[in-house]
Amino acid sequence: MSAVDETGADRTEVPPGAAAPLLSASGVRVSFPGRRGAATARAVDGVDLDIGAGEIVALVGESGCGKTSLARTLLGLLRPEAGRVSFGGVPLAYDPRALKAYRRRVQLVLQDPSGSLNPRHTVYEAVSEGLRIHGYDGDEGEAVAEALSRAGLRPPERFFLRYPHELSGGQRQRVVIAGALVLRPELIVADEPVASLDASVRGEILALLLRLRDELGLSALVVTHDLGLAWNIADRVAVMYLGRIVETGTVEEVLTHPRHPYTRAMLSVLPEAAGPPVVLSGEPPDPSRVPAGCRFHPRCQVLASGRADAAGVAGRCRTEDLPVLAGDSAGAVACHWADSTGTAHGGTGPEGAAGPSGT
User: Fold this and answer.
1) Residue ranges of the domains in the chain?
2) Cis peptide bond prior to 155, omega within 30° of 0
3) Which of 21, 88, 143, 282 could share a disulfide with 50, CB 3.0–4.6 Å?
4) Domain ABC transporter: where (predicted)?
C-alpha cells in the first residue's frame, strides 16, 4: 500500500508493528566517469544500509572504499544512479524544495573544523548561518546560545564574537557541531569527526556525540577508518570495501568476533590486537577495476594462505559474486570462506582482536 507525502513523493507504508528505519539506503549505486576514456569508477556498488532512530552506526573502511561517496548520497548531495534513499519511510525527492527541507533534518559534520569555518565569520555568524538559510522565525540569539551550550561551549555568549583562530581545535569542532545542532536535526552524518584532533580532545568529542544521542535522541552515521573509534561510539558497524558492505552487525559482534578477512586485517593493526598485524597483498582498491568474484580476493590473506582452498571455496572466491547484505543485517558477512566454515573467530588468535580501546 502506498501514499504520497506533501512533497509529492511516493511513500511505501510500513506494515503495522514494524518500525521503519530513520534513514535507509536500498540498492544504492553511484559511479563516476573516468577521465580521458578511463573506466568508470564504481564508488558505491550496491549498498543497503539502515540507521534507526537514536542509533549510532559506524561506516568503516580504508580510503577509497566508497565511504564518503555513500555518505554524500545519504545527504542528498549525490543522486544515485540506481537504488534509493528513504528518510522515515519516504523516498528522498531531489527537487530543490524537498532537498532543502531534508537537509534541515539531516546535517553534516566535517572532519576539519578549520576548513569548515570561514575565518572571517564569528562563532555567532557560523552557527546562525543555517537558521538564516532555512528562514528561522524564532529568537535567533537564543537558538545559537542553546546550540553552543549543547555542544559544550559555556557560557555560550562568551564565544559569540570570537573568530576561529581564537579557538582551540576541540572548540572549533564543537562550533561545527553546534552549527549542525542549531537546526535541531534528527540525524547527523559525521565524516571522520575527530581525525584532525589531538588524542586528548578526541575522547571529549566522542563523549559529546554520545551525550547528544542520549539527551536528544539524535541518530548518527559516523564515517571513519578507525575501528577503535567505532568501538567507543557505535551501536552497529558496517565495514565497507570497494563499494560494498562486506560485514555488518553490532559493534560487539563485528569487533570482538570478526568474520570477514578484511575486517580481521583491519583489527589486527590496532595496538590492542592479539598477534602480529596482517599484511595485505596486492594493490589498494580501485573502483574502476572491480575484480570478478569476491572483490577482496586479490588481497585476501585467507586465499593466499591456502585456507580457502582447503575449505573448497577458492574457486568461488575468484569467480562467484556475493549478494548485497541487507541494510538491517545483524551479524552478516559477505564471504565465501566465512560462510563455508561458519567461522566467527574472536580475540585470541593472530587475526582476531580483543575489544579495541580505540582512542
Assistant:
1) 2-234, 239-338
2) yes
3) 21
4) 28-267
